[in-house]
Structures are given as structure tokens and as C-alpha cells.
Amino acid sequence: MGPTRDELSDWLRLALTPGVGPGTARRLLAAFGLPGAIFSQSRAALLQVASAEQASALAQPPEPLAALLECTWSWLQDDPGVRRVVTLDDAHYPPSLLQIADPPMLLHVMGPPQLSLLQLERSIAVVGSRNPTAQGADHAKAFARALGDAGWAVVSGLALGVDGAAHEGALASASTSVDQIATVAVVGTGLDRVYPARHRDLAHRIAQRGLLVSEFVLGTPPLTPNFPKRNRLIAGLTRGTLVVEAALQSGSLITARMAVEQGKEVFAIPGSIHSPQSRGCHALIRQGAKLVESVQDILEELGTQVEVSNSSAHETTPKASEDDPLLVALGHEPTGLDALVARTGWPAPQLQARLLELELDGVVARLPGGLFQRTGHA
Known about the structure:
The protein has about 375 residues and is of the alpha/beta class. Helices cover about 45% and strands about 10% of the residues. The chain contains 17 helices and 12 strands. It has helices at about 5-15, 20-30, 35-40, 45, 50-60, 65-80, 135-150, 160-170, 200-210, 225-235, 250-260, 275-285, 295-300, 310-315, 325-330, 335-345, 350-360; strands spanning about 85, 105-110, 125, 155, 185, 210-215, 240-245, 265-270, 290, 335, 365, 370-375. Strands 1-2-6-5-4-3-7-8-9 form a 9-stranded mixed sheet, with helices on both faces. It is elongated, with a radius of gyration of 23 Å. The N and C termini lie far apart (about 50 Å). It comes from Variovorax dokdonensis. Belongs to the DprA/Smf family.
């Protein structure tokens, strides 16, 4: 059972009150109980916990409250059970979020009624670049699928690149049942919109086999500050964070830092020393993150001895084909045509024709700047 309409109104009012953030809200709740009790307090009582400005703000319902309440209540009634609001006092509020410095007052959740945020005791965050290399995207998908095969839910942020690949990999896992969460997308907008728009189909599929979660009220657009803010929830909901690829200035490193601050494990996949997308992972490894080459490295660190399936486990460590000299010459780093001509001695037209064949077979990807790279299928 979620909140009643009046209870929802009180929680939304507390969340919308200007100048009252999660920290002050928790102090008020600890002092007076549920939000309805807060609003019935005298100014003198409120001043024992809040500032004068906050006490004044608490005395008047925020102007957007009525419209937001109507919108949120209608949203809930349109698909009851699938659409939920989980408040800080709800028995279904994830205990792991209560341990972070500023847990959100309420969470909007969408997904099958039998799935709950309480089922995330075995969950891993998989995050990384919005512009990964072809191999990075393959790693994200393969690691997520192998984690799913081992019985772990994958949590990410629905962003382009590594996030999307991780969600896809988790959804491809054959081991998750209708009573088990495949993946959770923690988003930076209201749940009445999908960002980026090209992930609309992915979001719908996640809502069928996992959960979509947001701390932001309905109607919240994709505002830049909200995405780093939601990263604390990605770290907070999980046992550890795997960074697949990340530049040095990356939101994924924010998630990793928050995981460390919360006492969680951080894992990183190493990459080419020449790739900007690998520098963030290398920096994390220098700072103490665990270098991982396979899903088993993660499971062993978390004390889970599980034999992952051969198909997904091997996909995380693609091996060069001994039968194709072009793939051997290509190696595992982005490589230009001139370098391949020098390595193979083949004329450029022959190389281009063979590269096109490999690209159509899905074992080579064409990158910006005229570069080529092997994928995880090679």
C-alpha cells in the first residue's frame, strides 16, 4: 500500500518547500514524525529544528503543490501497482539508501508489482562513458549479462553508451525470472518522461522486467545538475560499482567516488593507454579500485563463488582469432587504415573490402576519425 492522497500531499509539500533539503527534512521528521505533523507545529517548535527562513516556508503550501498532487495522483491511479511512490517511512523504502547522507524523501517507482527495491541485496552498478569504444560497449553488455546469469541485478542510469549497454545485457540474461529484478534504471528526470528519447523502448522493456526509479517529481525535465545528484542513488542501492570506461572528467567517476564514500566496492576494467575513455578507469585503479578482467573477479571480491555461464563469461574476455590475420593485426585498440596497411602489407582497397566484411559480421566496428576496432564478438 502506498500513501493515501492526503499523505502524498504532505510528502510532496515537504519535498517542494523552498530551502528544506533532505537533511533538514530528516531532522524535522525525527523531531515531529510524519510530514502532516510537521505542518501542524507552531513556529516556535519549528525554530527548534529549522532556521527562521525554513520555518516561514513550512507555514505556507508551495504554489505548485496542488497541480503536482493532482498530476501525481492521476499517474498512480492510471496503473496502480506498477506505478508507485515509496516514501521515507514506507516499509518498502530500501534500507541501503537510509545509510547515505541525504536519502530522498520519496521515490517514484515503475515496474511489475511483485518487484521491490528491497530485492536489491545482490546488485551491482555498471556505469561508464556515454561515448564508449565498440569494445567498451560490448564489455558493458557482456559483464551485465554475466552478472545477471549469476543472480545479480544490474543498476545503471539509462544514459547513452555504457548505461544502455548494461541495461541491455542484464535484460538478455536468461536466469532472471518474473519474480527477480533484471535491472534498475535510476533516472535524472520525472518518471513521466524518458531521457534520452532514443531509450524510450529500452525504458519500456526495463519496466517489464525491472524497475525505473526517480527521486524527482513528475514533470522534472532533464536538468544538468540532476544527473550527478542521482548518481548517489545508483551507488547507494548497490553492493559495488563497476566502471567500464570513463574519461577523467566523467559522471561515472562521481558515482565511483560516492560508492567509496558509502563504503562500497569499486571495480574498473583496464583499457588501452592511448584511449581517453580508459583514463578514468586507470585513475580509479591507481586509487585502489579492483582491476577486473572477468565477472568472476567481481563475484569473488563480494564473497560470491558462482560459476557463470560459459557464453556470457567468455564474452567478457574476447580473444583474437588465430585464423584471421587482419584481426590479429588490428589487435584490441582503435587503429587507422594506414597502420593496418603497414602491419599487413595489404593494399588499401583490399583492406577496406575485408574490413567492411568484418564490420557486417559484427566483429569490427568503425569509429569516428577513420579508426577501426574489434568488438567483443571477435
